[in-house]
Design brief:
- It is a single chain.
- Helices cover about 70% and strands about 0% of the residues.
- It has about 190 residues and is mainly alpha-helical.
- The longest helix is centred in the N-terminal third of the chain and has 30 residues.
- The protein is elongated, with a radius of gyration of 30 Å.
Length: about 190
């Protein structure tokens, strides 16, 4: 008795009993990585895109003030030594805020800290125009530094939460790129 799967003399793989049609061929040239579980996880999720967009806008807004604010308080009659104080107090407040903000982000949530930090920064920027008094501007700059530390820490944490483990270096590379791009745009 003959088998139904004999190959023809040409070796084409045609079988008897199927009308001479070619059988399904195994295609070794197709990559084996066709299933989704073998693909690297997507970096560009909604959460990550929002995090880098917020990071860019936050850095752009922050980068505009150091050049304009000293000129503004100079027009208000501030002595030269206070020009550096305006920049320095922001940096010191930001440094103090970061470890505290890190703990707060973990305890109170990322969204709340990010929102509070962004609102604080925006309100302080508006307050500079509403209260054109050198002492008030320095106080608002201190508060703005605290808000910046909170917002920036929360943004980095949100980004880290949304970057797949296999793509951390790439994701943080893009986060750093938004910092530089914001400096160029501002």
């Amino acid at each position: 008795m003959k088998s139904n799967t004999q190959t023809s003399e040409t070796g084409s793989g045609a079988t008897e009993g199927n009308g001479g049609h070619l059988p399904k061929l195994s295609m070794p040239f197709f990559p084996k990585r066709l299933k989704n579980e073998n693909l690297p996880p997507s970096l560009w999720t909604q959460g990550f895109v929002l995090a880098i967009a917020v990071n860019f806008l936050n850095f752009a807004g922050m980068q505009m003030l150091p050049t304009m604010l000293p000129l503004f308080i100079r027009t208000l009659g501030a002595p030269d030594y206070l020009l550096g104080t305006v920049a320095g107090i922001f940096s010191i407040a930001s440094l103090v805020a970061r470890p505290l903000a890190g703990a707060a982000v973990d305890n109170f949530g990322r969204r709340g800290m990010l929102t509070a930090g962004l609102i604080g920064m925006a309100l302080c920027s508006i307050a500079f125009a509403i209260f054109p008094i050198v002492g008030a501007i320095i106080a608002f700059r201190l508060i703005q530094g605290l808000a910046w530390g909170a917002a920036n820490t929360a943004t980095s944490t949100v980004a880290a939460d949304n970057i797949p483990d296999a793509r951390h270096a790439e994701g943080f590379g893009y986060m750093g790129m938004t910092n530089s791009l914001a400096l160029v745009v501002a």
